[in-house]
Amino acid sequence: MSFSTLGLAPSLLNAIAEIGYQEPTAIQSAAIPPILRGADVLGAAQTGSGKTAAFALPLLQVLMEKRGGPRKLHGLVLVPTRELATQVGEAIRQLVSHLPSTIKVSIVFGGVSINPQMMALRGGTHIVVATPGRLLDLVEHNALDISQTSTLVLDEADRLLQLGFADELAQILAWLPARRQTALF
Ligand code: AMP
């Protein structure tokens, strides 16, 4: 299997080649084509299986088609911990750094002052990687509008629930548009 059979745009294939990925992992081969088609996806994969790129590449493809465009939130990635928020956000930024468009990726998590995160969200953003509680706070402070989000990714959804984020998730789901794509890993 080659990345070129998955329906990814040339700029993304270029980025993948520059990063040095030779071929897609199993979860990437299985998840990228349906996510690109706009389908909802449920992906079961271990940590280290390449699932970040499995959902990030399709998010970036849509944003590349708009050449970045106005900073309107396209993808919301919810993760259970601040460590994972940083890891996933930085992995997406690494992909973006190999692309010709300016795509803004914001990383927000609780346990630190909210003000710098509010400042960083000014002027909008394309992709947010967030822990649920802090995301709620930011929406309540009008620092972020999630009502037009196209794609929701729940990364480590099992841990999100184990860690007691069910109420936060229910509130976030209520604020998201009913017509959206959901990818659950
Ligand atoms: P993840 O499961 O998304 O945390 O990815 C685990 C590691 O695999 C990261 O270091 C990625 O950079 C790397 N990786 C992701 N996709 C591929 C691929 N197709 N080939 C080789 N390494 C990859």
Report on this structure.
With 185 residues, this protein is an alpha/beta fold. The protein contains eight helices and six strands, in the order ααβαβαβαβαβααβ. The chain has helices spanning 10-19, 26-37, 51-65, 82-96, 115-121, 132-140, 157-162, 166-175; strands at 41-42, 75-78, 105-108, 127-130, 151-154, 181-184. Strands 1-6-5-2-4-3 form a six-stranded parallel sheet, sandwiched between helices. α2 packs parallel to α3. The radius of gyration is 15 Å and the shape is globular. The model has no long low-confidence stretch (mean pLDDT 96). Bound molecules: adenosine monophosphate. The site of adenosine monophosphate (AMP) has 11 residues, from α3.
Give the gist of this structure:
The protein is of the alpha/beta class and 185 residues long. Helices cover 45% and strands 12% of the residues.
What topology emerges from the helices and strands here?
Layout: H1 10-19, H2 26-37, E1 41-42, H3 51-65, E2 75-78, H4 82-96, E3 105-108, H5 115-121, E4 127-130, H6 132-140, E5 151-154, H7 157-162, H8 166-175, E6 181-184
Helix pairs in contact: 2-3, 3-4, 6-8
This protein binds adenosine monophosphate (AMP).
